[in-house]
Write a structure and sequence with these properties.
It comes from Pandoraea nosoerga. The chain is α+β, with helices and mostly antiparallel strands. Helices cover 54% and strands 9% of the residues. It has nine helices and seven strands, in the order ααααααβββββαβαβα. Helix 3 packs antiparallel against helix 4 and helix 5 crosses helix 6. 12% of the residues are buried.
Amino acid sequence: MHQELGRARLIKRLGAFEPSASTTEAVLTYDKQRPLKRDPKIREEHRQERAAARRELRARYGQYKEAFVYRRLDPATVRQRFLNIREAAGRKRREIQETVTDAAARNVLYSVVAFETLRERDRLRREIRKERQALYADPTNRRLSYREWVEQQAATGDSAAIGQLRGFVYSEKRRARELGRAVANDDADGVIHADDVDPVARNVTDGLHFRVRRDGAVVYRWDDGRDAFIDLGRRIDVLAKGASDEVPITTALRLAAEKYGGAFELTGSEQFKRRAIALMVEHGIDARLRDGEQEALRRAKAAAAAKQTPRRPRKPRKGGASP
């Protein structure tokens, strides 16, 4: 120990030791008559006020949409510009007819006028095309989406728009949490890929159509309203798993093989995994399973199926001896 930290030196510097004063322990009591920190009635009133403000905000956006007018080139003005070129060419031809007496010279000048007229029309077409492209690219000549319009209103201090923006953010976070839980659900019957891939929305088979949810997931559904499977991006969950639901499972596997580059892993119950592997072999779906046990089972079933496939009898050679 350092000599400066000895007891005698510390007492001389800091004084003698004194125990701390006793403290009174806090007593927690519950008073059921005490009003709640947040009154449920007041909270409900505020919720109703926010809902009314957002309905009024949506109505204002509807008025904005109805009043918005796209700026376009006036068709009458465009026609007049072409007409001006034609009239100018007509004046030149009349002037040539009145001033040039030689027929051969007149024909040459007529040809020059015709060529210049074609060139002017082509120049005017290019000019009008650029003007239309400029109007199309002008951000002020585009009707804002509801989200963009709300952001614009919020920038001016509109309280209803500010509240709606907070609602947008809350909804996005909630959907992100729900989608994250769905993607991380390895217990669901389906297919999963190692990398994150965007959902795919396209027609995959007859009678099956898709619907894109607001969180970006794509639900594939039969015409009668039954859900077949859902594409969440890096995984596809099979929702139709009945004894007669061979087509949706096979369709989901084909989509996974194409989308994930022919390599994925099966998830869910062992019964589903075995059934999916059997369907892959039966329908010749060219894919490799990343899980070692699943791939070994797939190879074994494929080998067994190859042995059971009858070989075609060889045709006798022409000119050969018959047995």
